[in-house]
Every structure is written in C-alpha cells, then in structure tokens.
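Severity: low
Component: inverse-folding endpoint
Summary: output formatting inconsistent between runs
Steps to reproduce: submit the following structure tokens with default settings.
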C-alpha cells in the first residue's frame, strides 16, 4: 500500500502543470530535439548510409565474413557469461544494502559506483598489472597453465568490471522505495528467507531487474576501452564487435566497418524498444 501510494504521489508530481511561458517551453523543445537530431539521429543515419553505400550484396559479404562472425559470437558469449553474474551480484548487493544495516554500508554503496568514475582503459591496465605475465599473479597463473590477459577470461573480467553497477543501481532505489513491509509480513506468516525472496521480493523487483539487465547487456556489447587493453586484438579469437570495427576502419575497409557498426546500431535500437516496453509495463502496474 505504501509503495503504491508513493508511486501515485510521484506520478501526480510528475504530471503537475508548469508555469513557464510558451516561449520557454518551445525553446526547450527546440534544444532537446535539436540535440537528439544532431548527436543521435544524424550519426545513426550516416552509419546506415555508409554501410549500404555499395549495395546489399556488399553489406551481406561484410557481416558474413568469418572474422565478423567470430567477433559476433565472442561478443554474445561474453554477454551470456557476464549477465548472469551481474544479475546475482546486483540482486545480492541491492538486497544487502536495502534490507540490512551493517558497518561499511555507505562504503559499499560508494564502491559500487567505482566503474562509473574510473576510465575503462585504466580498468584494463589494472587487470594487466594483476594477471599479466609480469603482474602480481602472472607468474603463478603461468605456472599453473592459466592465461587471463590477451585471452577470453581477461575480456570477461574487464566486462564484468565495467558493467557490474548497472543492475545494482537500478534495484537499490527501487527496493528502498518499496520498503520492507511485505517481507516482514511474509516472515511473520512463517515463510523462511528464501521463500520470502522468491515469492515476495523477486516479483516486486522483476521489472527493475529486467531494466538493469538490458542496460548491462547493452554496455557489455559496446564495451571497448577495457576489453581493448586485455584482448590482444587477435583476429578470430579475441576480437569483439567494437574491436573488429576498429581494425576494419584502420585498414581502410570503411564500408565493412560501418556494416558491422550498423549491427551494433540495430542492437541499440532493440535495447531502446525493450527499455520502453519495460517502462510501459512498469508504469501500467504502478497505476493499479
């Protein structure tokens, strides 16, 4: 009841009429839509035009090249590996921060935001210092036949680092707004912690969880800086889609580079559609 009332209050506040003049509103509309046109829509159109400038056959040849298919498979593999781990961490961190009081809680909340403040390139260099052949753990890894840097495990670790705040940051404010009343009622009625989580907490956070997973997945697909440092840029082995685009562009294969870039643009559009769908369902449920 409290969460529904708070959502109703937020919606009323959001829908409150503003008092600015019509000129000010028109000015803001021009600024916002002009920004979107200049920095989002026009680059997207330019990518698509460049990708198809030599025709459909050339486009299909570029995206079906073995190196391109390898980059796509590796990108999807990294997403499949990292996203479940991010989901487990995000739910655990949000549950811990919102449901319990403990020493170091504010520090944990701050550390979760660390990837937002650290450059992805710096993050990649940190992994090189840790797991590289001359790093702190490098010799031990080599002695046990384990290779992290310049291989897929290092790329997975770098992707996990840059994406792990997204799900947690979506869940924490949502779960704080929901409160703990329903969980307390469930425990009072005799349910244990796991049953309370799966029957009460998880259904309440499913849309925020899905929304955070969409953002984390999109970030993992588009990650360049950290992955570039630890990948080694080995064709057909350690090149993700962004790295493959860079190589094609540096080799003056512009049409092929933009063809692969168009695939990532399509992923971005699908992400926006999924994001809008999640927001739509969440808004509808909030009205109930």
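Observed output (run 2 of 3):
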């Amino acid at each position: 009841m409290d969460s529904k009332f708070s959502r109703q209050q937020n919606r009323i506040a959001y829908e409150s009429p503003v008092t600015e003049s019509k000129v000010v509103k028109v000015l803001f509309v021009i600024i916002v839509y002009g920004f979107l046109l200049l920095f989002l829509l026009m680059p997207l159109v330019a990518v698509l035009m460049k990708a198809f400038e030599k025709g459909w056959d050339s486009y299909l040849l570029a995206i079906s090249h073995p190196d391109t298919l390898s980059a796509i498979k590796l990108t999807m593999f990294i997403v499949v590996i990292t996203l479940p781990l991010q989901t487990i961490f995000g739910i655990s961190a949000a549950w811990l921060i919102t449901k319990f009081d403990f020493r170091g809680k504010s520090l944990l909340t701050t550390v979760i935001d660390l990837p937002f403040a650290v450059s992805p390139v710096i993050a990649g260099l940190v992994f090189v210092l840790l797991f590289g052949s001359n790093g702190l753990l490098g010799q031990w890894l080599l002695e046990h036949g384990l290779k992290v840097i310049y291989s897929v495990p290092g790329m997975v670790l770098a992707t996990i680092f840059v994406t792990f705040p997204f799900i947690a940051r979506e869940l924490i404010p949502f779960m704080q707004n929901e409160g703990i009343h329903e969980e307390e009622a469930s425990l009072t009625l005799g349910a244990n912690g796991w049953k309370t989580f799966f029957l009460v907490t998880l259904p309440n956070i499913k849309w925020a969880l899905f929304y955070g997973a969409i953002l984390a997945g999109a970030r993992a697909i588009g990650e360049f800086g950290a992955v570039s440092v630890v990948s080694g840029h080995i064709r057909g082995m350690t090149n993700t889609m962004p790295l493959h685009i860079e190589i094609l562009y540096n080799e003056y294969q512009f049409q092929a580079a933009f063809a692969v870039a168009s695939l990532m643009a399509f992923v971005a559009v699908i992400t926006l559609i999924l994001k809008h769908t999640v927001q739509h369902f969440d808004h509808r449920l909030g009205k109930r």
